[in-house]
C-alpha cells in the first residue's frame, strides 16, 4: 500500500487506516501473517480518445477503429444495456497465417474507456468457444442485472480469444489457436490493455479485475493462477474448471440418454430429447423438493442445502417406477439407471471417474437444463472434443451424434490428457489452471477471489467447484476464506435461469473486499419475475417477483430464522 506524507491526517484517513488494519488482521494467511490490504482505486478522466491509435502503438497490435460513443443503449444479443459516454477502441493482435490449416488468426478485441473513470480495469472473459468480440460492458454476476462494470466506471476489454467464430471448433486444428483459447490470449491482451488505459487517462489502472461465467469462469480461474500478478480481484461464475472433462461427460450423458430414447430422428439416430419428457423431469424436480426443500427450515421451492439433500433424495426409491406405459407420473427402471449414471458422473468401464458428480436439484425441470443435456452433446460438445480437446484431433471421424455415441470412454477419453507432435500441451494443460496452483501469489498480494455456481448447472457441475474449493482450503491450512470464497446459487442453471434468485451483483462485493477489506458474509440475490428488469420465465408463479435470498459462502447455507419468507432478512448463513 502506498502512503504519502502529510502534515495532518484527516478523520477519514485515520478511519480508513484502522479499517485496513482490522481487515488485514482478519485476513491472516495460513502462516498467521496478515495479508496485505490493497489501496482503493482513485477516479480519473479520459484525456485522449481518437488519437489513441498513435499514442498507444505497440508491435503486433493494430487498432482498426477508435471512436467516441455518446451515452445510450448498446445492443447485447436480443437485449440492450445502457452505457455511459465512452471511447471505443477496436483492434487485433498477433495476426498470422497458420501453417497447419492455412487460416488467418488474430486476437480480436475491443475496449470501452468511460469518460468518467473509476480508476479500475475489468477483463470481460466470454463464454463458449469464444470466437466473437462481444460488447465490452462487463458482467457483474448472475443473470444480468441492469448494470455493468462499464456503467460503474471501469475500463473494460472483451476479446475473441484468438480465432474467428466462423471456424467453429475447427480452430482446434491449429496448435497456437488452442493455446490462445486456453490462456495465451489473456496473457497477450492484459499488458496491451493496461498500456492503452495509461495513454487514455495519463496513468495505468489502480486496481484490475477479471470476470466471466461458463468458459469465462474458467478463464477467470486460469487467470487467478497464471496472471495472479496482474489482477487484484477475480470473479468466476459457473466455471468450467475442468472443461475438457465436462465436455467428455456430455458425450457420456448422450450415450446414457440414447439407451432410453423413445423415438429416432429422421436420420434414424436416437432422439435424445425423447429420453425424458419435460413432465418426467418436472416429476424428478418435485420429488427432490418433497425430500429436501424444507431442510433449511422453509418449504419455499429452494433446496439450500444440496449436500444434505444428497443423503435424503434417492432416484431409485423416491421417484415412482413405471409398471406400464410412461405417462409423466413415473420413470422406467432404465430411465432411473440412465439418470443415476449421469448424476454420479462420467466413468470409464473400470468405474474410474472422468468428471464430477452433479447434485439433484429443482432446476432439472428447466429448459436450460434440457438444452445442455439433450441438445448440446451432438452439437457443441462433439465438435469441441473432436477438434480442440483431443490430441491428436479426432477430426476425421463422423461428427454430431455419431461422434458422441461412438466416443469410447476407455480409448478416447485419455486423449484430453495427451500431448504429441505439433500439440505440445494437452487440453487439460492449456485449459485448466496449473494442477499445483494453491493461489499463493494471488493471496500474498492481497488480491481476492469470488466464485459462484448454480447448483442446477447441467454442464459444469457445482460439485466440481465445491471440490476445487475444498482442495484450496486444504492447501491453505484448512481455511482459504481470507482471500477466496465460493457462493453456490440454489436452483440456478448455467449462469442464469432456473427456479432461482439468480440476479445479483458480485462485482461490487468483490471491489469492497479488495479495496476496503470488507469480506463478503453474504451476497443478496433477487428473483427475476414480473416487474423485474429482466424476466426469468422459470421463476415459479407463487414466488414474489421481489423475492430476495442471501447467497452464503460455502459450506454455509441460508437457513430460515422467521419473518417474511420472501425476504433475505429472514434468513441467516449457518454451517450445517
Distance between the termini: 38 Å
Low-confidence sequence ranges: 1-31
Average pLDDT value? 92
Structural class: alpha/beta
Q: What strand line-up does the widest sheet have?
A: 2-5-6-9-8-10-11-12-13
**Beta strand count:** 17
Helix content: 25-40%
Beta-strand fraction estimate: 15-25%
How would you sum up this structure in a few lines?
The protein has 576 residues and is of the alpha/beta class.
What brief labels describe this structure?
nine-stranded mixed sheet; single chain; 17 helices; alpha/beta; globular; disordered N terminus; 576 residues; two-stranded antiparallel ribbon; 17% strand
Characterization of this structure:
- This protein has 576 residues and is α/β, with parallel strands linked by helices.
- Among the domains are: 39-205, no CATH class; 244-429, no CATH class.
- Helices cover 32% and strands 17% of the residues.
- The protein has 17 helices and 17 strands.
- The strands form 5 sheets. The chain has a 9-stranded mixed beta sheet, sandwiched between helices. A two-stranded antiparallel ribbon has the order 1-7.
- Helix 4 (175-201) crosses helix 5 (215-226), helix 6 (243-260) crosses helix 12 and helix 11 crosses helix 12.
- The radius of gyration is 24 Å and the shape is globular.
- The two termini are 38 Å apart.
What order do the helices and strands come in, and which of them pair?
Layout: H1 11-26, E1 44-45, H2 52-55, E2 61-69, E3 72-76, E4 79-83, E5 86-97, E6 104-114, E7 116-117, E8 120-125, H3 149-152, E9 155-159, H4 175-201, E10 207-213, H5 215-226, E11 233-237, H6 243-260, H7 278-292, H8 306-312, H9 315-318, H10 333-344, H11 367-375, H12 377-389, H13 400-406, H14 427-431, H15 440-445, E12 448-454, H16 462-475, E13 484-489, H17 506-516, E14 523-526, E15 548-551, E16 557-560, E17 571-574
Parallel strand pairs: 8-9, 8-10, 10-11, 11-12, 12-13
Antiparallel strand pairs: 1-7, 2-5, 3-4, 5-6, 6-9, 14-15, 16-17
Helix pairs in contact: 4-5, 6-10, 6-12, 11-12, 12-13
